[in-house]
Amino acid sequence: MAKKEKLRKELGLFDVFSISTGAMFSSGFFLLPGLASQFTGPSVFVGYLIAGLLILPAMFSMAEISTALPRSGGAYFFLDRSLGPLIGTIGGLGTYLALVFKTAFAIVGIGAYAAFFWDVPVKTIAIAATFAFMGLNLVGAKKTSRLQNFFVVFLLIVLGTFVVEGLYRIFFTEGINMPGANNHFEPFFTNGFEGIITTAGFVFVSYLGLTKIASVAEEIKNPERNIPMGMLLSLVVTGSVYVLGVFIMVSLIDPSAFANDLAPAATAAEHLFGWLPGETGTYLMIGAAMAAFASTGNAGLLSSSRYPFAMGRDKLLPRVFSTVGKSGAPVTSILLTTGLVITFILVFSEEGIAKLASTFNLIIFMLINFAVIVFRKSNIESYDPGFKSPLYPWVQWAGILISFILIIYMGWMSILFSGIIILLSILWFNYYAKGKVRREGAIFHWFALLGKNQHVELENEFMTILKEKGLRHGDPFDATIIKAKVIVADKQMNFDGLVDHVSGMLAKKLQVDKDMLVTEFNTQGTIDSTLVTPEISVQYARSEEVTEPTLHIVLAKQGILKPVGKGEIKSEDLIKIFFFLVNPAKEFRLQLRMLSRLMDIVERDDFVTNILKQNNEREIKEYLLHNERFITVKLLRNTVQSEMIRKQLKDIKLPAEVLVALVERDGRSFAPHGYTTMMENDVLTIIGEPKSIKQMFDLYMGAKESTEEK
């Protein structure tokens, strides 16, 4: 992937929580509760609870695929790589338009609530807000998320106060109508089971923003942790505020007025915040509503703009949409999205937009749940999610059924709208994109198990994504490098002789069959094309008898010719660096992550030249480690580190999560144990978590630099 088509990883856990939460709070809390009560009466808050539970299958499926394939484009990318580019085009264009519709609707909400304060045209305020969000998006996702964080924090403070004050007044003070003591809650279910299900379907749109974080997955740091955790926290917080907040509204507002109230939160605030001067409480809730609509609009513009970017990168849209500006933002895609939002604000009425968009989202949820089944059944080894959906595949089938039922409750107009989007997407694919795309989805790998063809390039792409994700916490890459054996190859050795020699050494060390290793090292796999780097060869094997990864590194300064070929085409490559990695057979995805990290290292500029310049085994291993995960300390007199001299390793106080992995003494390197006594001029290689390594750097290197300055 070209650098100009890469997005920066700038978003952390709170950013994920903020974008996801901000995309949910708007009409769901400030507009829909009263309207939804028409279907089921005072039990409307139960409808919100059920809707929150119904979103779980889609959330689990989206979180699984997002941690396996953290790529910009969200649902589009997932559907394209699972079900093929035709379904990807339908999912991408449809979800993009649905998101733009919802974004326009949310931004119009800003103008509508602004009218409470000033006598201004609603759409003028909405268009001005759109341009403001565009400007923020153009300077990068991190700056956009900072505004988003502000909106969400302010919103949660106000709504948290509303919920706490409301529950206290209802249950612990007199003068407020108690549930069950008045007609506010009688009858509880006005239309029985059908009414509560209809309500759940109606307010289901309140939770649709939860999964939109997947569209910016490529820009999230540590996606395997931050995506599922951020989504779950967002659902718990938002769901709690919805259920408790709507319960308070039902308790405080007269039922006949509640059903027709388009601003029930503001009405309830009048009852609760009477202790504030004047109409401060009402204005505070109106301000929260504006922040909610703004956060939804801002998050919507951020996430929706990634769809044309991802589709342009895959040639389903013109390539110009995949370019990234100096700020790291997809400029052309943001400009297109802004133009569409403004067009929808000017052309369409506010009524019904969200419902039309939500129907298509339910169709996407059906496909996303099915995509998880496809990825699992395809047996693509490099599909390696950091989070796996619980209760697979029952959760996915339940999600498909739930979406189908809710679509029926959306009505024929919404279904017709979705049908038109699908038809237009098919026409676009057939008449524009089909000739430009040469790939198929993971479903072809599933078909391969039934004797059909599969798309091999998909495995390679997933390996590339695996490399970009990096190691998972706990993966023993650093320990494997430290324990690796470094071998200098004999000048006269050929490739077959080298494989036989290294296999013999590994077989003796690991107590496994040598011939098995030779066969494994010489067998070509589907990921071999991703392991190709000039002058470097990576051989890998798996064994049932091996319990941890083991690596041998071979340096051949003069080079060894390695036979390569495809079909009848044969040639030889001159290789100077060989890596032989053996992994436990049951940990094949660990092997892929180890190989991916290794390739990330060997693709450094001038890797071969630099590693061959290293003077000894310690320097070679240090060159292969994460720079931020190790430090080298030499024990010299009259320095801070001199306190370690003549102490056993177990008695030396070191920061948490660090390990003295290697000691070089008199030109020889060895792995120390707790009773190893440190000596003057020892060189220690210390590995650990980045924060702890930084502490050591500040302690030892910082002290050294200060001494030199003096």
Q: Which helices and strands occur, and which strands form pairs?
A:
Elements (H helix, E strand, L loop, with lengths): L12 H10 L4 H4 L1 H9 L3 H11 L1 H13 L6 H9 L1 H30 L7 H17 L2 H32 L19 H12 L19 H30 L2 H4 L5 H9 L7 H25 L1 H8 L17 H17 L5 H26 L15 H17 L1 H22 L9 H6 L7 H14 L7 H7 L1 E4 L6 H16 L3 H9 L13 E8 L6 E17 L2 E16 L3 H15 L4 H7 L3 H8 L5 E5 L23 E8 L2 E3 L12 E6 L1 H20 L1
Parallel strand pairs: 1-3, 2-4
Antiparallel strand pairs: 3-4, 5-8, 6-7, 6-8
Helix pairs in contact: 1-9, 1-11, 1-14, 3-10, 4-10, 4-11, 5-11, 5-17, 5-18, 6-7, 6-17, 7-8, 7-14, 7-16, 7-17, 7-19, 8-9, 8-14, 8-16, 9-11, 9-14, 11-13, 13-14, 17-18, 17-19, 21-25, 23-24
Question: Any overview of this molecule?
Answer:
It is found in: Cell membrane. InterPro entries: AA/rel_permease1, APC_superfamily, PTrfase/Anion_transptr, PTS_EIIA_type-2_dom, RCK_C, RCK_C_sf. Keywords: Cell membrane, Membrane, Transmembrane, Transmembrane helix. There is one protein chain. This protein is α/β, with parallel strands linked by helices and 710 residues long. It folds into three domains: 430 residues, Amino acid/polyamine transporter I (Up-down Bundle); 142 residues, Mannitol-specific EII, Chain A (3-Layer(aba) Sandwich), CATH 3.40.930.10; 84 residues, Alpha-Beta Plaits (2-Layer Sandwich), CATH 3.30.70.1450. The chain contains 28 helices and eight strands. The protein has a four-stranded mixed sheet, sandwiched between helices. Strands 5-8-6-7 form a four-stranded antiparallel sheet, with helices on both faces. A hairpin with a 2-residue loop joins strand 6 and strand 7. The longest helix is centred in the N-terminal third of the chain and has 32 residues. It is elongated and about 90 Å long.
